[in-house]
Specification:
single chain; mainly alpha; about 80% helix; elongated
């Protein structure tokens, strides 16, 4: 019995490694097949659900992604990344309230996750909550100061709030990080600045 369990562990690890390689190579169907095999072997493997959810999300199969992230969260309720990624799947479906709730839970579990702050800032911006979005982008920037996207999006939120000086500063900072960033250039052009 112990040897059988060890064999299953080895097979599970092999499927996991091969699934990741398939995913990196762009063979998403093969990756899904390998992650599904892991789940057949061990329905408590949260990593397999999480990884398969990522692939479904990349394929635009958001309901399947949400189902897998939900299962991963049931198995690992403290997994900040699973909440963040499920939030992104909700976001992609236009279900912003659910997305914001998941990003918020991701942040509760890991206050050092710049992606969760960034993603929540985007969802808040879409909902017109630009002041709250600015706060989230600011936190994302504190955690990841070289993220040009965070500066651009905070600049856009400032622009929506009528704070053109702060918007210009953020667009310029984004261009310092990424000199060819089109959205930053467009933002400055909108504000009549190069």
């Amino acid at each position: 019995m112990i040897e059988g369990t060890r064999d299953e562990e080895i097979r599970t690890e092999a499927y996991l490694q091969r699934g990741v390689l398939y995913e990196q190579a762009g063979n998403k169907e093969a990756a899904i097949a390998d992650y599904s095999e892991i789940i057949k072997l061990d329905a408590t493997n949260s990593v397999a659900f999480f990884n398969r959810g990522n692939v479904y999300d990349q394929l635009g199969e958001y309901d399947l992604a949400i189902a897998d992230y939900t299962e991963a969260i049931k198995l690992e309720p403290a997994d900040s990344d699973a909440f963040n990624n499920r939030g992104q799947a909700y976001d992609n479906k236009g279900e912003y309230d659910l997305a914001i709730a998941d990003y918020t839970q991701s942040i509760r579990l890991n206050k050092d996750n710049p992606r969760a702050f960034f993603n929540r800032g985007l969802a808040l911006s879409i909902q017109g909550e630009h002041q709250r979005a600015v706060a989230d982008f600011t936190q994302a920037i504190k955690l990841e100061p070289t993220d040009a996207e965070a500066y651009v999006n905070r600049g856009a939120a400032y622009e929506e709030l009528g704070n053109d000086a702060a918007a210009r500063a953020d667009y310029r900072k984004a261009l310092q990080i990424e000199p060819n960033h089109e959205e930053a250039k467009e933002g400055l052009a909108r504000l009549g600045t190069n």
